[in-house]
Amino acid sequence: MSENHADINTQIKYWKTLANVNLKTANSLFEKRRHMHALFFGHLYLEVLLKALIVQHTYKDAPFGHKLYTLALKAALEINEAQHDLLTRFTAYNITARYPDQRLLLYKRFDRKFTQAELKKSEGWANGLCRISNKPNSIAKIQSLCCRTPNQRIPNSVCVPLWFVCERVRTS
Fold first, then answer.
1. 14 SS3 class
2. What is the DSSP string of 83-115?
C-alpha cells in the first residue's frame, strides 16, 4: 500500500463495507434456513473485518488467506483460548462449505439452533473488538497504536482508530 493516508482510509472503508455485506448475507441465508452457507458467510464477515484491522494496524494491503486466527495475529490482537476456538471453528466453516463430501456429513449438525448460536458468537466477538474503543483509558492507547507506522507518527487528523473500523460494521 502506498503511504497515502487516503488510500488507507479507502481500503479500510472497502473492507468494512464488505464486512457489512457478508454479515447481512449470513443473516439472510440463516432466515432462509441455508445454515451451512450462513456459517460460510459468517466466516467471511470475520475475515474481512480482520483484514480492515490489519490494514489499519500495518498500513499495508490486507494479506491473502482465510485462517482467522492468523489474521487476528497479523492485526496485533491478543487472542484468548475461547477466541482461538471460535476463530478456528469459523475457519473450518469456510472449508466445510466448499467440499461436497464434508457438506453432506454436516447438514444435520448445522441446524437452526446451532447456526444461530454460532452467528451470535461471531457478532459478539466482532462487537467486543469495538467495545475496546469505548473505554476512556483505551482511546489514547488505540490512537497511539493506530497512528504509528514503523518509521513515522501519523498526525491524529488522519489517524484511523479502531472505532472507525468498527463503527460502520455496527451501524450500517
1. helix
2. HHHHHHHHHHHHHHTT-HHHHHHHTTTS-HHHH
Please state which of the ranges 6-15, 86-95, 135-144 shows the lowest mean pLDDT. Answer: 135-144
Helices 35-58 + 136-146 axis angle, to 10: 70
Question: Under DSSP, is residue 38 helix (H, G, I), strand (E, B) or coil?
Answer: helix
Distance set, CA 169 to CA 23, 48, 97 (Å): 9, 11, 24
Contact between residue 138 and residue 145 where contact means Cβ atoms under 8 Å apart: no
Q: pTM of the predicted model, to two decimals? A: 0.74
All domains of the chain in start order, with CATH = 5-171 (1.20.120.330)
pLDDT digits (tens, 9 = 90+) for 123-168: 988 887 765 433 333 333 433 443 333 434 433 333 344 444 454 4
Angle between helices 35-58 and 5-31 (to 10 degrees): 170
Q: Give 106: exposed, middle or buried? Use CB within 10 Å, 0-12, 13-18, 19+.
A: middle
150-157, long-range: CB < 8 A, 24+ apart: 154/5
Identify residue 88 by its one-letter amino acid code: T
Residue 148's φ and ψ, nearest 5 degrees, are -130, 135
Beta bridge partners of 153: 148
